[in-house]
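Hi U.,

Before I forget, here's the chain from the pilot set. I'm dumping it here mostly so it's searchable later in email.
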Amino acid sequence: MAVCAACQQPLVLEISASDEEDSDVEMGGGCSASAAAPVTTNVPDDVHLNCGCHFHWQCLLDAYTLQTCPSCSSPISTISSETGTEQVLCNLHNEGGFQEQIDILPLLVEEGYLKAYPEERRARAFLEFCREGDVEGVVGILQDNGEDEDEETIQTGDGEGQGRTKLLTYQDPLGDMHSGLHAAVAGGSREVAWLLLLLASQLPLSEFPAVVFEEAGRLGVMREEQALGDEMVDIRRLRDANGRTAEDLAAEMGGVWAGWVGTGRLAVG
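Structure:
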C-alpha cells in the first residue's frame, strides 16, 4: 500500500468528532462511557501526482516546488493543450471522494502565497465570501478584528474602522486584482454588491432599496460617518488588472446586472 512520500505515513487523515457531536451522542441515549470516549474517523488524504508519488495534502503544501516533485524531482507541471497555461494534474482522493486528473496548481499557488503573506488570509476569505454571495460571511469578516488569528499573522494595528476599509478596498494579486465588488459581480450576487456599496461608496443613500437598510440593520452594519476633510472611500473607482471597473465587468457579464449598467450604481458619475 502506498504511503506519503514525505512522512512515510498511511494516506489517511484522522478526524476527531467535535465536542458538540459528542454531546449529541450522549443526549441521544448512548452510554456515558461511549459518549466520553474520543470519537475519531479516518478519511482518505491522498494526492497522487503524475510522477507516481503520493502525498498528504498538507505534506505536499509544506514541501512542494511548482515544477518538480519534492520527493523524486520529476517534472510535475505541464502545459494545458486547451488553455496554453501551466497546470499540475493529479488524482485526488479525500473526504469529498475521488477526482481524476484535476489541476491543483491554483490551490498550490494560493497556499504558497498565504504562507509568505499570512496577513492576507482574512482579506482573501473576505473576497471568497463576496464571490459566493455569502452576506453574513462578509459581515462576519468585517466585524472580526482579527484577535483570534494565529500569532504569526501580522495585525494591522490601524483600528477597527481602518482595518475594515482595508478589507473593503483589498484587491487580489492572484486574481486579476479583483476587489470585493468585482468578486460580487463575478459571482452574480446583487445582495453582496448592495452591502459593499452601502459600506464603501458615495452612492447616495436615496438610491438604496429599503430592504438593504433593513438587512444592514439586522446584521449590525452601516455606512460610517466620514470626518470633515477625509476623502470618502468609493470602491466603484477600483480597477482590476485589465483596467475594468466593477461596472465594466457587469456589462460583460449581463444577466442579473442588465438593469444595473448605466444607472450609476457600479460607476462613479
